[in-house]
Amino acid sequence: MSKVLLGIILGAVLGAFDGSTAWFSGPAVRDQIVGIIIGSTVKGLIVGAIVGWYSSRTQSLAKGLLVGVLVAAFFAFIIAAIPQPDGSHYWVEIMVPGSIVGLIVGYATQKYGRPRVVKA
Questions:
Q1: Residues 6+ apart with CB under 8 A from 33
Q2: pLDDT tens per residue, range 4-50
Q3: Which domain does 46 fall in, by range?
Q4: Does residue 51 lie in a domain region?
Q5: Which side of the chain, N or C, has fewer Cβ within a 10 Å radius?
Q6: In the chain, how many domains are there?
Q7: b/e per residue, 38-74, with b = 16+ CB within 10 A?
Q8: Strand, helix or coil at 83?
Q9: How far does Cα 33 stand from its chain's mean position?
């Protein structure tokens, strides 16, 4: 499987799982759980596509991990910056799992994705 496709699939699956864990954040977010899961899945798709694309351009595991964490943290930051109805933010609850998803996608695309074949 290509690195981009692996990143997209894994990003979507892990994003959906990440979003579903919001249920455990408390009753304040339970009425929004469907939107959270959909948003996390889309965020995972985008992050997976970017990380997979970058991973197809390099064979460095360290660079793949770094890009995975940075891209996922960036998108998680954008989501965490949106204030809740009561004016609060869920910085840690959104950014930590989101960054871990990026780390996993970065690792998986470098280790298990099919390298790009450059035609001469």
A1: 19, 20, 22, 23
A2: 999 999 999 999 999 998 888 778 778 889 999 999 999 999 999 99
A3: 3-112
A4: yes
A5: C
A6: 1
A7: ebbbbbbbbbbbbbbbbbbeeeeeeebbebbbebbbe
A8: coil
A9: 17
pLDDT, tens digit, 9 for 90 and up, residues 81-97: 988 777 778 888 889 99
Structure-block tokens of residue 9: 């699939």
CA 3 – CA 117 distance, rounded (Å): 12
In a domain, 91, yes or no: yes
Give me 13's structure tokens.
């699956």
Signed CA dihedral, 61, 64, 76, 44: sign only: negative
Six token digits for residue 39? 């948003």
Angle between helices 61-80 and 33-57 in degrees, nearest 10: 150
